[in-house]
C-alpha cells in the first residue's frame, strides 16, 4: 500500500499482552540522526547481482502462468463433483497442486521482476509495482513478519532509487519519497543509521512534511546507538563479560551478558543456565521482526522458576533495546523470573520497562530461523502441533567472572 507520508508515517505501535505475563512487543519503528555523510549512503549502492539465466522465464511469462492457474483454480472450485467422494478427493488434490505451484510462481515473479527492473531503462509499471511490493513485504509486520528481511528490503529500495538517479522513469504511481520511506524503515530495522538518514534526507528534499516525532525518535535512537557502540568498544577491551551458548533446534546462538549494568538479572540467568533450567525449553512466542521469547515451562507465558526477581531498568547506565538484545519479560515492575526475549530490531517502547541484560554476539541467523508462533493458545490446546516449536536444546555457560552467580529473589512461591 502506498504510504501517504504527511498523514501516517509511522507504523502503529503494536502491543502484545501475554496471559498474566508480559506486554511483550510494543513494536514501533523509530527514527535516529547520525553524524556520517547522509547523501552517499544511497547513491553509491550498486545494482543487485542477479544475472539472466538462458532458460529463466521472463516476468510476463511467470505472470501469465500464475494468472492461468488462478483461472483454473477458480473454475475447479465452482465445478466440484457432488456425491462422488473419490472424485472429490482427486478434485481437491488437483486444486492443492495448482495452489502450491502458484506459491512457487509468486517467488519466481519477484525474482523475475527484479531482473527485468535491472535490465530495463524504463521498467513497466507492473514490474515497478512488483519490485516496490518486495520492499513492503520484507518490512511489513502487519503480515505477521513471515517475510521479514530488512536487509533485502533496503537493497531493493536502493536499487529503485539508483534507477531514479540514473534518469529512469518509474511508474507514475510510485513516488521517490514513498520508496525512500520504505528504505528508511528497512535501514532503521538493522541500525543502519547512515542509510536511514540518507533516506530521510531524500524525503525532506522532496518537501514532504514528516511528523516531528519521526525525526525526534530517530535522533533519540541514534544517540542511544552511539552510546551503545562506545560501551561495546570498552567491553571488547576488557573482554571479561559472561557468555552463554544456546544450542537450539535452528542453530547455535552465543550471547554475551551485561553484568556491569544488570548484575542481578545476569546472576539469576547464569544460575538457571547452570541448573539446566533452559534445556529443552521451547520458544513459545516468535514474532518475526519483533521478538522471540522463551523461558516458560508451560508455554503459556505464565511460568517462572518459583520466584520473582527485581527489574534493573532505572539509572543512567541501563542498556537499550536493539536488534539481538536479550531482555527480561515481565508483567510489570519486579515480576521477571526466567522468561526472556530476543529483539529482532529496535524496540524503543520497552526501554525503561524491561531489563536489558545481554545481546547476541553470533547466531542471529539462527534467531531468524526460529519457527513463527503467534500465540500460545493454538499450540497448548492442540498438542499435536507442538512440534512446530523451535527450542533450546542445551544452554551452557562458557565464560563467567570469578564469583558465585545467584538469583536475588523477591517473591518465594509457597510449596503445597
Explain this structure.
The chain is α+β, with helices and mostly antiparallel strands. It folds into 2 domains: 197 residues, no CATH class; 173 residues, Cyclophilin-like (Cyclophilin). It is 40% helix and 14% strand. It is built from 11 helices and 12 strands. An 8-stranded antiparallel barrel has the order 3-4-10-8-9-6-5-11. Strands 1-2 form a two-stranded antiparallel ribbon. The chain has a two-stranded antiparallel sheet with strand order 7-12. The termini are far apart. The N terminus is likely disordered.
TL;DR of this structure?
The protein is of the alpha+beta class and 416 residues long. It has helices at 40-43, 59-78, 85-119, 125-139, 150-165, 176-189, 193-205, 212-238, 263-274, 364-369, 377-380; strands at 16-17, 23-24, 243-248, 251-257, 281-287, 291-294, 307-308, 325-328, 340-343, 356-362, 390-399, 411-412.
Characteristic key phrases:
Cyclophilin; alpha+beta; two-stranded antiparallel ribbon
Residue windows where pLDDT falls under 50 for at least 5 positions: 1-55
Q: Note the gap between the termini.
A: 56 Å
Provide a count of the helices: 11
Q: Give the overall pLDDT as a whole number.
A: 84
Order of helices and strands: EEHHHHHHHHEEHEEEEEEHHEE
Described by the principal axes of the CA atoms, the overall outline is globular
Largest beta-sheet characterization: 8 strands, antiparallel, barrel
Q: Which structural category fits the helices and strands? A: alpha+beta
> How much helix is in the residues?
25-40%
Number of domains: 2
Topology, number of strands: 12
Strand order across the biggest sheet? Answer: 3-4-10-8-9-6-5-11
> Mind telling me the C-alpha Rg?
24 Å
Proportion of β residues? 5-15%
Amino acid at each position: 500500500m502506498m504510504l501517504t507520508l504527511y498523514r501516517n508515517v509511522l507504523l502503529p505501535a503494536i502491543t502484545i499482552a501475554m496471559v498474566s505475563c508480559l506486554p511483550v512487543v510494543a513494536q514501533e519503528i523509530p527514527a535516529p540522526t547520525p553524524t556520517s555523510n547522509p547523501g552517499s549512503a544511497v547513491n553509491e549502492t550498486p545494482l543487485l547481482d542477479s544475472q539472466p539465466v538462458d532458460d529463466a522465464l521472463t516476468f510476463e511469462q511467470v505472470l501469465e502462468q500464475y494468472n492461468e492457474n488462478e483461472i483454473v483454480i477458480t473454475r475447479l472450485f465452482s465445478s466440484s463433483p457432488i456425491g462422488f467422494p473419490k472424485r472429490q478427493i482427486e478434485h481437491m488434490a488437483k486444486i492443492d497442486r495448482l495452489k502450491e505451484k502458484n506459491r512457487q510462481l509468486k517467488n519466481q515473479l519477484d525474482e523475475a521482476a527484479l531482473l527485468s527492473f535491472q535490465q530495463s531503462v524504463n521498467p513497466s509499471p507492473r514490474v515497478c509495482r512488483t519490485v516496490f511490493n518486495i520492499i513492503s513485504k520484507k518490512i511489513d509486520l502487519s503480515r505477521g513478519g513471515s517475510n521479514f528481511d530488512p536487509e533485502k528490503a533496503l537493497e531493493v529500495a536502493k536499487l529503485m532509487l539508483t534507477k531514479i538517479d540514473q534518469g529512469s522513469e518509474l511508474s507514475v504511481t510510485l513516488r521517490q519519497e514513498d520508496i525512500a520511506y520504505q528504505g528508511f524503515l528497512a535501514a532503521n530495522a538493522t541500525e543502519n543509521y547512515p542509510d536511514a538518514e540518507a533516506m530521510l534526507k531524500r524525503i525532506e528534499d522532496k518537501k514532504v512534511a514528516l511528523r516531528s516525532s519521526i525525526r525526534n525518535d530517530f535522533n533519540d535512537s541514534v544517540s542511544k546507538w552511539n552510546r551503545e557502540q562506545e560501551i561495546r568498544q570498552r567491553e571488547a577491551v576488557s573482554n571479561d563479560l559472561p557468555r552463554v551458548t544456546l544450542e537450539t533446534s535452528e542453530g547455535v546462538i552465543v550471547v554475551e551478558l551485561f553484568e556491569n549494568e544488570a548484575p542481578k538479572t545476569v546472576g539469576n540467568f547464569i544460575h538457571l543456565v547452570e541448573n539446566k533450567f533452559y534445556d529443552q525449553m521451547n520458544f513459545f512466542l516468535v514474532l518475526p521482526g519483533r521478538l522471540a521469547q522463551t523461558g516458560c515451562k508451560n508455554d503459556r507465558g505464565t511460568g517462572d522458576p518459583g520466584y520473582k526477581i527485581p527489574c534493573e531498568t532505572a539509572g543512567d547506565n541501563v542498556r537499550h533495546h536493539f536488534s539481538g538484545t536479550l531482555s527480561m519479560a515481565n508483567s510489570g515492575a519486579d515480576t521477571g523470573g526466567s522468561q526472556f526475549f530476543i529483539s529482532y530490531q529496535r524496540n524503543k517502547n520497552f526501554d525503561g520497562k524491561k531489563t536489558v541484560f545481554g545481546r547476541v554476539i553470533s547466531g542471529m541467523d539462527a534467531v531468524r530461523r526460529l519457527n513463527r508462533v503467534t500465540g500460545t493458545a493454538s499450540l497448548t490446546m492442540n498438542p499435536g502441533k507442538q512440534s512446530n516449536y523451535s527450542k533450546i536444546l542445551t544452554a551452557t555457560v562458557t565464560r563467567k567472572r570469578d564469583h558465585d552467580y545467584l538469583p536475588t529473589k523477591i517473591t518465594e512461591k509457597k510449596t503445597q
